[in-house]
Write a structure and sequence with these properties.
Blueprint: H1 11-21, E1 25-30, H2 33-42, E2 47-49, H3 51-59, H4 69-80, E3 88-91, H5 99-111, E4 116-120, H6 139-156, E5 161-166, H7 168-172, H8 174-186, E6 191-194, H9 200-210, E7 215-218, H10 230-236, E8 240-243, H11 248-265, H12 276-282, H13 285-294
Parallel strand pairs: 1-2, 1-8, 2-3, 3-4, 4-5, 5-6, 6-7, 7-8
Helix pairs in contact: 4-5, 5-6, 6-8, 8-9
Length: about 300
């Protein structure tokens, strides 16, 4: 019997199975449809929609809480549906308001096909977790956000994974951050996320303190956190590792170099093997041709 999309497990269900069975889940950061397609081409079994990358690519702005729910949801929906079998973990910032807005956020991400979302305890005027000057809400407000998310998930009969992120390490210290994550887990969070981990000891301690709740590592190179490989992260006790800047930094360098060459020499210097057809193949040309052929059409003959 042919497996259909309707009979296949959801991406959220697949991610829950991965959390239960895999030693470590590795999700490269993607910031637009093209970078997501490249991650899928390489063969990752999960991907991560970075909020900083969404702000940069969709808005051309810094990650300072400028992206709205609609900005983030529409971006996530596009990425999640490029290959609905590959779980997308997505940034959901603070949940975009009080309990009702958090519930709305979870519902919209669920209906968009997102497998997991993380909600943090920064104030509404948030900023990237690796910038200074952050401020967090009180623990009760954070717990209410997570409880609202977990309750929304249950009302929807959804498997979407709720990740509780705290930025309190920089503002209130390690013990308070761990206390917040424990309270979030009790309120229904499936995964804990301590932002801005500073050393091996903090990494081991937070994983031990939260066990058996899985802990996510945000591997932002050249930020507050030391650079660890997925295997090193696994040994420290993490279950998930995301790499938000993995596509952003190489893209900036490569694009800028090409633009400088045009300005200075009038030529791009691009690899001659990167033809228009190569580009379109990366972003689904063969699938589009197949759909047309199976429908009995010939619109794309000869492409």
């Amino acid at each position: 019997m042919e497996t259909t999309a309707a009979s296949s497990p959801s991406a959220a269900s697949k991610l829950r199975h991965m959390l239960a069975t895999k030693d470590i889940i590795v999700a490269p950061g993607v910031y637009d449809g093209f970078s997501a397609r490249i991650a899928l081409e390489v063969g990752f079994d999960s991907i991560y929609m970075t909020g900083a990358g969404t702000c940069a690519s969709k808005l051309g702005q810094a990650d300072l809480g400028l992206a709205t729910l609609n900005d983030m949801r529409s971006h996530a929906e596009m990425m999640a549906n490029l290959d609905p079998q590959i779980p997308l973990i997505a940034d959901a910032d603070t949940g975009y308001g009080g309990a009702n807005m958090v519930a709305r956020t979870v519902a919209q991400y669920h209906r968009s096909g997102v497998a997991a979302l993380h909600i943090e305890d920064q104030i509404q005027a948030k900023r990237c977790g690796h910038l200074g000057g952050k401020a967090v809400v009180d623990t009760d407000t954070f717990v209410q956000r997570i409880r609202a998310a977990a309750q929304a998930r249950r009302r929807l009969a959804s498997d979407i994974v709720v990740i509780a992120r705290t930025d309190a390490l920089q503002t209130d210290g390690f013990d308070e951050a761990v206390r917040r994550l424990k309270a979030a887990a009790e309120a229904g969070a499936d995964v804990a996320f301590l932002e801005g981990i500073q050393n091996d000891q903090q990494a081991r301690d937070v994983c031990r303190a939260l066990a058996p709740v899985p802990v996510l590592l945000n591997m932002v190179e050249h930020g507050a956190t030391p650079s660890w490989t997925p295997d090193e992260a696994r040994q420290l006790g993490f279950k998930v590792v995301i790499f938000p800047f993995a596509a952003l930094a190489p893209a900036y360098n490569a694009i800028r170099e090409a633009f400088v060459r045009i300005k200075e020499t009038g030529r791009t210097g691009l690899d001659p093997e990167f033809t228009p057809k190569r580009l379109f193949t990366i972003v689904g040309l063969e699938d589009a041709v197949r759909v047309e052929d199976e429908a009995g059409g010939s619109l794309y003959d000869g492409v």
